[in-house]
Amino acid sequence: MKPLVLGLPAPMVTLTPHSKSLLQHRRFSPAFCSSLSSEPIEIKDSKLEYKTGILDDFFLNSFRNKLVKEVGWDSEKPGYDGLIELAKALMMNSRSNSQTKDAAVRILKSLFPPFLLELYKILIAPIDGGKVAAMMVARVTVFTCQWLMGVCKVNSVDLPDGTSCNSGVFVERCKYLEESKCVGVCINTCKLPTQSFFKDYMGVPLVMEPNFTDYSCQFKFGVSPPLPENDDTLKQPCLDVCAIANKRRDIQKNVDAMKCPKA
Questions:
Q1: How many other C-beta atoms are found inside a 10 Å radius of the C-beta of residue 194?
Q2: CB-based contact 183:176 (threshold 8 Å)
Q3: C-alpha of 196 from chain center
Q4: DSSP string, 164-227
Q5: What is the DSSP-derived secondary structure letter of residue 263?
Q6: Cα 189 from Cα 66, distance rounded (Å)
Q7: What beta strand segments (E) does the chain contain?
Q8: Which value, in Å, is the radius of gyration of the alpha carbons in the chain?
Q9: Of 1, 139, 229, 243, which alpha carbon lies 20 to 30 A from 82's?
Q10: Residues in Cβ contact with 116 at an 8 Å cutoff, skipping those fewer than 6 apart
Q11: Mean confidence (pLDDT) of the chain
């Protein structure tokens, strides 16, 4: 969005020698304003944080209610903390990673009207080799998911055909990963099911590249994920702060905890 430029006549000002001296030594910084901000954020401790609104609360409650149906019980913790507890329960209660992934895909699918997904896959996904659909879902992701992931923005990514496209989403510091503190939760309740959902139900390939060092994440819509054996994310060790891994180490001292047991 372009900044607004206000054309106002300059007032007549008489400068004294003292005021001239002040102006010569004063530093000025440009200020810009826009008529509307679609990403309400605030600066706190040199880090951008997303400020949630009423619509975000609706998204959180809808997502949490779907988690409750899959898990079979609700957390006593309010808001986002309760959602994270339910996500961990979804993973720990499943018999396998595949079962966790399938449950998460069901949750994502249930958030959309069935006909909308079918129409998108049939009518939108084939346009211009899939680029239009990829760019659209990137923008919708930024608009609807910052309450879950934190501040993010659309960026350009390289596509398999050698071109680049504004179909990426860069998450500055993923709140979901930071709060769960678990590689397994990230991979099995977010990365793998989200990739499968967009490809299978919306016809849009997607690879997600979480960074477990700085908690950032790069979405690349229009790019297929690598084979599991070539995906370094799936070989990621447990985080030192992971409560699940620490409990596992205490119970089984001889267990190799280098690779996340749920990754």
A1: 19
A2: no
A3: 16
A4: EEEEEEEESS-HHHHHH--HHHHIIIIIHHHHHHHHHHH---EEEEE-TTT--EEEEET-PPPP
A5: -
A6: 13
A7: 41-44, 47-50, 152-158, 164-171, 206-210, 217-221
A8: 23
A9: 139
A10: none
A11: 82
Place of tokens 């008489």: 14
Instruction: Label residue 245 by pLDDT band (50, 70, 90).
Output: low
CA distance 210 to 216: 6
Length of the chain: 263
Yes or no: say if 234 and 261 are a contact pair by the CB < 8 Å rule.
Answer: no
What six digits make up the tokens of 224? 């297929």
Q: Could you tell me the pLDDT band of residue 102, with boundaries at 50, 70 and 90?
A: very high
Non-local (6+) Cβ contacts of 149 within 8 A are 171, 174, 175, 176, 217
Give residue 235's pLDDT: 86
Residue whose tokens read 């913790």? 77
Residue from 214, 207, 262, 206 nearest 236 by CA: 262
Separation CA 62–CA 147 (nearest Å) = 12
Q: Which pTM value belongs to this model?
A: 0.76
Buried b (16+ CB within 10 A) or exposed e, 204-239: bbbbbbbebeebbbbbbbbbebeeeeebebbebebb
For residues 42 and 51, the answer to whether their CB atoms sit within 8 Å is yes
**Conformational region of residue 152, where left means phi above 0, alpha means psi within -120 to 50, and beta covers everything else:** beta
